[in-house]
Predict the structure.
Amino acid sequence: MANSRLKEKYQKEVVPVLMKELELKNNFEVPRVSKVVVNMGVGEAIKNKEIMEKAKKDLAAITGQAPSVRRARVSVATFSLRKGMAVGLKVTLRGEKMYSFLDKLFSIVLPRFRDFRGVSRKCFDKAGNYTLGLAEQTVFTEVDIQKSGSRGMEITIVTKSDGRKQSERLLELMGMPFEKIKD
């Protein structure tokens, strides 16, 4: 499989900059993205099984990998939900597929949002992982708007770093379109 643009950029541009900025002596100490987890809730599939199949096809087209079905852990009577029912889909991307997905997300998908001014810098956890919620998956070019309804998704970028600041700098250098800091 050919190297993706983002992986090459990481190896040739991002690693040297981070090594200099963080005063690191070893390439293995440099912060990096270890995996990307994409989750999609499909609670409405309880009433209509076709919705689950459409969501599976959409998520597979978006990520390039077949999603695993997430099942309810507990029963909730008010939502007509029983333990073991399919309520979501999940894909974990690593390696080439991860870099290809991030490249597409940073350069094509996020800028397609109307009035897009950048993603928030407040969505990091203490470990430096970034979680981004999308209100609808139809911004991905692989999704046919007529065939599938609008459905939200959550994308978590898991990093290997020493906290929030290093992860933010890593994603910034990789091309993540963060909102501009107001002076």
